Amino acid sequence: MSACSDPTPSSPIPFGSLGLPQSLIKHLNRRQVTAAFPIQAATIPDALAGRDILGRAETGSGKTLAFGLPTLARLEGRRARRGHPLALVLVPTRELAMQVHDALEPYGRALDLRLKAVFGGAAIYRQIDALNRGVEILIATPGRLTDLIARRACRLDQVEIAVLDEADQMADLGFLPVVCELLDQVRPDGQRLLFSATLDSAVAELVTRYLADPVTHRIDPPAGSVPTMSHHVLVVNPQEKAPVTAQIAAREGRTLLFVRTQLGVDRVTEQLRAAGLAAGGLHGGMTQRARTRTLAEFREGTVTALVATDVAARGIHVDGIDLVVHVDPAADPKDYLHRAGRTARAGASGTVATLALPKQRDGVGRLLQAAGVDAEMVRVRPNDNALIRITGARPTPIQVADARPHRHRSADHGTAGRPERGHYGFDRGGFERGQHGDRQRSAGSGRRSTGSGQHRTSGPVRRRRQAPR
Fold it and tell me: What is the extent of the structural domain holding 135?
């Protein structure tokens, strides 16, 4: 394996110097994309030469064009047979599949190359129809591609360029066995491009098994050491966590808030909306149409506070997120860094804040130490100067009505059977009522819940995680 640790160039490198065909350069210039990001400048010449590549870079560093432009260039003038794509891009989530397609499709159209994204939650018969018409570059989640192959709508025997994007996230989600089954079906003499933020044992095994003498390019530092990213732990009392969260969500700019379960996403989103805030939720239990609409609203600024689970937000690239909030502390250092990586991209600045109850502060401190993060820890209350300084929170108290239906109210519409309410209209304990009731684990505790709302236990019964469809 050839290894390169590519320094950030002191001056921008133009795409025109990387060996791309003039047809692509002309279209890049038309879209005012002239200077290559470091990962693009490093990998494109090797990819054009047909080399296998291991790219070590964070989400948002420009990886899509790093593998997409040379793939398009190498296929220029080619035509795929029905159901036999020439290039395959495997991604872990539906949202990332759509993002890759949308980023590359204009350039593919300029070269008369056909691209199609296939993923679960969309009509499979439309995807089959597109494959029957012919697709040069197929962007797919593993589960849906497996379905299409089982229906004999797609074969991978003509794939000569295979890209695996966000390989570490594939491993985290348990999808590598399916990925291996798919990579075993592509042409053995083809080119492999693998991109990952980390190189743990599972990803290293993929590299050894499928990449031939790859050249390695590492550009971006881990999220914990990004110089433009600041980390903070905000210690809050249980009864004040909800109003603190609402004041943060009321700030100017795009804010991404992480919670541990789908139920938590729904509850926090409803309560923020009840406070009059432009909030949206994102989790795997939503329909694809709802997820797509929510992401579009977040990108456009109609929604300024997006509440999401770890799984739903993986691989999502939205420009201009300058604050990430761990409403529920991350489960482990890797999850923390994945969450934090949604901000401070490509040289931009960003802030990462973790809300910790007093009983959680020691566990959160250990987690951040393991993640290699140096964080400021400060106790805050609603309207505190420190809260405003760190997050840009709106200082005015926000009156919030309970967003949930009151199923136990008495016949005369009194308050019998209702949970005790706090000063800001939330249940006492704020959002924590739902968290304790769902038995979610915070940093340093013993039980862990997954982004799908299912709990991992030490008992003999385990659900087998399926690939995304």
Answer: 2-218
